[in-house]
Specification:
Distance between the termini of chain A: 57 Å
Oligomer: homotrimer
Shape of chain A: globular
Radius of gyration of chain A: 17 Å
Strand content of chain A: under 5%
Chain lengths: ~200, ~200, ~200
Amino acid sequence: MPTFVQILDFIGTFAFAISGIRLASAKRFDWFGAYVVGFVTAIGGGTIRDVLLDVTPGWMVNPVYLICTGLALIWVILFGKSLIHLHNTFFIFDTIGLALFTVVGVGKSLAMGYPFWVAIIMGSITGAAGGVIRDVLINEIPLIFRKEIYAMACVLGGTAYWVGAVVGLESYACQLIGGATVFLTRILAVKYKIGLPLLSKNE
Amino acid sequence: MPTFVQILDFIGTFAFAISGIRLASAKRFDWFGAYVVGFVTAIGGGTIRDVLLDVTPGWMVNPVYLICTGLALIWVILFGKSLIHLHNTFFIFDTIGLALFTVVGVGKSLAMGYPFWVAIIMGSITGAAGGVIRDVLINEIPLIFRKEIYAMACVLGGTAYWVGAVVGLESYACQLIGGATVFLTRILAVKYKIGLPLLSKNE
Amino acid sequence: MPTFVQILDFIGTFAFAISGIRLASAKRFDWFGAYVVGFVTAIGGGTIRDVLLDVTPGWMVNPVYLICTGLALIWVILFGKSLIHLHNTFFIFDTIGLALFTVVGVGKSLAMGYPFWVAIIMGSITGAAGGVIRDVLINEIPLIFRKEIYAMACVLGGTAYWVGAVVGLESYACQLIGGATVFLTRILAVKYKIGLPLLSKNE
């Protein structure tokens, strides 16, 4: 039986893959191209993290991410037109993925002995870098650099994880606090349209 | 004396480098930029594979890929205008490269003990990812995601390799069947204009 | 107390980060996006080099690059409008960074036992690849492929380093000659508008 974390991982992977496949479909990609973009959106952040940490990426050990992306593609092919009605559901799923991936990235880096400032960066890469690769592949400026709080939520969540550890909380409590911080930061930022200041044109 | 595989490798590298250099020339790159794009097109897929497999990329061990790209650049500078008449020749050379690189990628992954589903992905990355990096560098949407059967031929070739192994064929026979599948799939798909379905715009 | 090389490293990192942040600001990135682009511009080349050499990237060991990018962001936010008057100063700083990063990349590769032709490529990647990633992230064709002598200066500097070693100079003298070659090549190329030939449109 899958654990609670495995279920969240599957939900997050599915939501990330859907976001890649939908953006690919807007650019008239074929099924294969859409699958690749969905897969890279889902596993890209974790792959960059694992290459930097010099360990084998998780998707090369467990085929669940390939299968999950395949289910996401089938879903979009069958129910594409109805996805727009599920906008809020997918926003929640996507944010669950962001929170979980961040916490997993922070925890994996700490377990390998890296200091917290590296772990926070690795958590943010795990959560946000897949979306950056997605936007590069569909030839758009990465969304997370211009709009909404997204990767910043990962940084705050990683920092909350660290504060939890500093005050002596157990590992699972730190993970819970970190994940909740990512989740709430993103939800509240979108609900109240909170963003970071833009840089003025200085060239 | 070079082996038959080394000759095919040289032909494939040359054809891949030519494709990168020609697309760079269409964007008015200088000689250095064109060389870099040609080189990355030729060795990019194998490099991503080797980084994921955690081994030293082949071009860092053997300078033949640098030299081959240099010859490709000289060729384009000298005979650029006549390349258009060699369209079919280069299409064949490019497809030879695709087939060989795929088989090499599958074989290398299997030799390292990875299961077949990882080896098929690694074969496809070896064959097709260089062209994706090329298209990102010239700021275009990657061609293989929208047009023709290309990376899909690698997936089919890798699968044929696997089927050969399952039914108990020798390693060299699996390689031959895998390579032939890539080659024929791509040739037939282009000749009969067979493509994958596009995703409809679902946003 | 910081050594002379550490001071040059800080100046180069600062200048590279400023270049990324300014180009991000021209695309209306938010502060976080600008920080990420600045950081990737500064450490991207060295990171690709270290992944290829299979060692831990320097910025994961020493937080000075994160701090330096933060100072660069504060600088642009506070004094953005005056940066245009400092154009020549930043050009010099950027060229110092290019020279130092190239020499560091060559030296690190040689110390790991790679031959000189690999070391020259690694030096060029260290100096120039961060700017390529920067341009991909802001969705522009990489500047160094089309304009001015830039990465070519790294190649010449790496070659000068090699010539120095061949004629039996001490390591520090090779580094000095290599760095000076990068610096002077770039300064002279810009001053006298020397560029490489463009490829004509051959498609």
